[in-house]
Design brief:
Layout: E1 2-7, H1 9-13, H2 17-26, E2 30-37, H3 41-47, H4 55-67, E3 70-76, H5 80-88, H6 101-105, E4 115-117, H7 121-132
Antiparallel strand pairs: 1-3, 1-4, 2-3
Length: 138
């Protein structure tokens, strides 16, 4: 099974890429594809198209996710979506358990929470397709 993850600018800026990828590998997940890309506002609109998303939160996300490059990764492993979601921890890092990525490294507001991971098998292919499409780069 595959899953998709984005390492966000705050994690990149803080030098956490190696720590995060090491955790994926230690958990038995294999990297199938990895790229560093600067994404556009058009990509952000596609990626965060949820009608439930508060417009103020979306505005902050758009700023965070388009101001610096992101790292997109496709991972493979048994129950990859579930395993990765457990590994990253709660969206709000102040509520994430120690031992999770956000629990151990998260200190910033919710819109800069280190990492994004697909929340279901149904969305993995779509999120990866949007991320790796060069037409959605800046």
């Amino acid at each position: 099974m595959e899953t998709f993850v984005i390492i966000k600018p705050d994690a990149i800026r803080r030098g956490l890429i190696g720590n995060i990828i090491k955790r994926f590998e230690q958990k038995g997940l294999t990297i199938l594809r990895i790229e560093l890309r600067l994404k556009s506002r058009a990509w952000c609109a596609l990626h965060y198209s949820s009608p439930d998303l508060n417009s103020q939160i979306y505005h902050r996300l758009k700023e965070v996710m388009t101001r610096q490059p992101l790292i997109g990764i496709v991972l493979e492993g048994e129950k990859a979506v579930t395993v990765l979601r457990r590994m990253i921890g709660a969206t709000d890092s102040t509520q994430a358990w120690p031992g999770t990525i956000r629990g151990d490294f998260g200190t910033l507001p919710v819109h800069e929470n280190l990492i994004h991971a697909s929340d279901s098998e149904d969305i993995v292919e779509q999120e990866a397709k949007y991320f790796f499409d060069p037409r959605t780069d800046c």
